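Supplementary notes for students who missed Thursday's class. We covered one full example, reproduced here. Read the sequence, then the structure, then the short commentary at the end.
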Amino acid sequence: MSQTIPPILSVLPTRALVDEKFKVLVENLPAGSPVTLHSLHHSEDKDYWEAYAHYISDHRGTVSVAEDLSFGGTYTGIEPMGLLWSMRPVPGSRTGLRLRKMDVRSPMLVNISVYSGHIAEGFREQPPLASVLTERWYMAPGVRRIDIKEKGVRGTLFIPPGPGPFPGLMDMWGGGGGLLEYRSALLASHGYVSLALEYFSPGELQSADLEFKYFEAAFNIVKDHPQVIPDRVGLFGLSLGAVVTMCLAAESTITKPRCCVCVSGSHIFPRGETLSGINKMMARNSHKARVDENNHHIWRDLNLPITSDLSMKVDVGRINCPMLLVNGHDDQNTPAVESAEDVAQMMHTAGNDHLLTRLHYPDTGHLIEPPYSPHFRATNFIMASTKAKDEMHQKHVILLKWNFSKET
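Structure (token representation):
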């Protein structure tokens, strides 16, 4: 593509939170020129992730990703953020990868480039027409990050900038264990004091009573913080964290959440059991597990059909705060949609179904991430109890925009 004025590529803003949109614009192209937009990220795990899309410049020699059609690539159609959400490992990468940020104190660096012609490979072997390096942050300027190791609780507390006080959240991930901070960092960037809670190792606390007290102590760390409005603290759980959320909301006399958010979870949990009891239950039902056409493990049938035995379920009829259930219709790990139906019936029988809101997304799997996170079908998952690694069917993430009202 020969011309006297080189193409100009702009990405605005070049520095933003991960859930903020950017605008990608290419100018000074010849009219009707085929070009390829490409994004590239080198992850903290040292893997390369990329997305690309084919465009044709308009009569002004311009391509606007927010307004123009992609004719091919990792996404098609008008997708303003497709260069992020359609990212995938470059060909030849390890299988079962998941892109997630481990150190929220540094940005995700994404290089956006434009190439001449419609290409699908060899991006690093040829020079682009233009490139822009962008920064995507989970932690906004001014957010404070504080290590928590008190009252037997481990985690990281994120406090928004400003005088406060703020509403608070206790943020719990799933059965993989460990400490994941990026969701809490993003929530703090939007005005919530958020505690990313580290799960203890299975068997570390040998009784259900001790486990319960661990979560109650963590909740009180958030509630009693001077920057937190004490009667406006919620619970946010994904997968196993959603089970814990429902248990605390229904059973605890100390934890009094203002609201609950349960993502891809279930209320199936033997009463009086430790969390390791879920693993025991899964082991008993392991004959129901199956694999898909790619040998990815499917676990959703382990808890189906939903039991009518009340001793095997959280008594959600006792929940007396607003609760949001967020599920994907193609969740292959947990029967989240069937569980939500039973939760709704139990709450209706108890007369508190007015507190329940359900969001179901078609063609969506188990892992529901912050906006514009890459979609993927399966990921490696290490069972915290056995350290065995399986490639679990995840399907796609859905891109949820944080829309929790600070007034609820």
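Commentary. Helices lie at 82-85, 182-189, 208-223, 240-251, 276-284, 336-350. The two ends are 56 Å apart (CA to CA). If anything here is unclear, bring it to office hours.
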